[in-house]
Description:
The protein is α/β, with parallel strands linked by helices. It contains 25 helices and 17 strands.
Amino acid sequence: MTTTPSPTPEEWRLRVERELGPGRQFERALVSRTLEGIEIQPLYTAADLAPDAAAGSVSPRGGGWAVAQRVDHPSPKTANGHLLEDLAGGASGCLIERAPGVDVEWLHDLDQLLAGVYLEAIPVSFGTSAEALPLAATFAALCGERGVQLGEVEAHFGMDPIATLAKNGALPGDMSDARREACALAMHTAATMPRARALAVDASPWHRAGGHAVQELGYALAAYAEMLRWMTSAGMSVGDADRQFVWRLDVSHDLLTDVSKLRALRLLHAKVLGAWGVEDAAPLVLHATTSPRGLARRDHWTNMLRTTLGAFAAAVGGADLVTTLPHDSPLGAPGPLGRRNARNIQLVLARESRLDHVGDPTRGAYAFEARTDALARGAWALMQEVEAAGGLTATLTAGGVAEALGDSRQALKRELSARRRPLVGVSVFPPTPLPSEPEDTEAADPDREARRARLEARGRVALGAVDDFEHGVRAAAAGATLREIGDGLVRGAPLHMEPLPSIRESAVFEDLMGTEGPAPSVFLACLGPLSAHGARSAFAHDLLCAGGFEVRSSGPDLAAEALADAFRSSGARVACLCGTDEDYEASAERVCAVLRAAGARSILMARRPADGDQSLRDAGLNGYIYAGCDAVTTLGELRELAAAPEHSEAH
């Protein structure tokens, strides 16, 4: 039996170019570019890997990852009910978010929140903050009250002052105070809680402000290097300091990028430690959360697919803890269905798809290896730039990080507006009729007054200056609040800066739509038979629905005067012509004139602008819609026009 030899990459490219035909370039037709500036090739082989590329890796896991369900209801009692339900339903860890989130003020609140939870049985993670020392002291006091040995508890206290400053725009003291508290917490945790981790490297502020993967990794790496220097200057070894960190990254629905991002992180982590002379460091602990940036308010059911993709990327990328946000979280307080689906997504991936039994499934896949290498190189170069500028804190407070993220955010918005980065249910394939804007659901806290009364009745707590961790534990056991313990720490003046924004990609389109009154209408003037205008009318219908318009279409093969009558009957103020180039040439000028005479305040055409369109503009044509146009600007102008008083001039 004879076999046909496989073509070389060069032969394959020649064949593809022949298939593309004359006038179509390979790079323009088949090669795209990411927001990080990385080219996406249509085919990857070993030749696409740089000679010095290090293979990405995922450290082997024993027993898969922890399903760390987020707990964020303001009432500790209600949040405890959610947590117990999650644990009974398959969760194997938790992420406790505060401020805003669970209202934990003192030991009693924390005890109520964790009632019925075996602290030594699951990892308990707390959201990133700069107030981790008072919280850790209160947690240690709770363990003491319950007779739980601190050495048996796996807790992640989430101390990251740099990320907190970026996200909130403030620290309770200056950065030197935060540095001192971080070192004290890390050293005490290392000495008394071998399974716990005091510190976090949280990359979510950079992601949620619109940053791309290289910026997430580069800034996270710079924060890690800066905090490592804090620890080593306080007397910790590099290896001991490294074991105090948990890395926290957001993962979205871009599988290739997000899997590669997590794999690249391990390469970068090893490279930083290698620069310190550490060659055999313990594997990093990675906590991945599905990205709130990618979740939509409208047609929020599609978020279940987005969070599934994010959880899949986290699992394949080797996360140790995964938090899946409920699909209805953009609406406010998640409902029971949202919380249940959030954990079941991971359980299906682990138990039914058996991803928890697979180690590094993308290893050796050229596309993933090439992207991993490209992200790692870009992030390392960015980290070096930040280091040369004095470190991340200096760059952040000087505005350099905000400026760079602002540029990336604008590039992202351009991609979204042009629908080159489509959002199903929002910018493409929106539901029709478009549902009304969902109401925000605020989580009620019925126990707030009772907890406040109990706190006020506790009596006076003699605190004084909190000069070490054990003093904080004794103060918490005596009834001191987290705020009082924090106030007892010796701190300078609070540090302030402009916080980084936190965006949602779908808001680019969702913000176009008002919440009151009926949706404005657009009339599609379809030229010729359905077979001729079908493609462009379907495109126009989809784009206009994304702007919240009610789209009303004419029948096929109508004469110009009949189209004008149909336009009058539709009640619309805006019309859009849909047809072939031949039909436009034959009748568009006449149709524009009669539509303008029938009261159209703006007339669009579904195609790109072309030379020789001046006669159409003279007849009343105002603009164009086409693949790659600035849809958000066009739709915004149309909505303003539709809502303007009758005497306003047309665009």
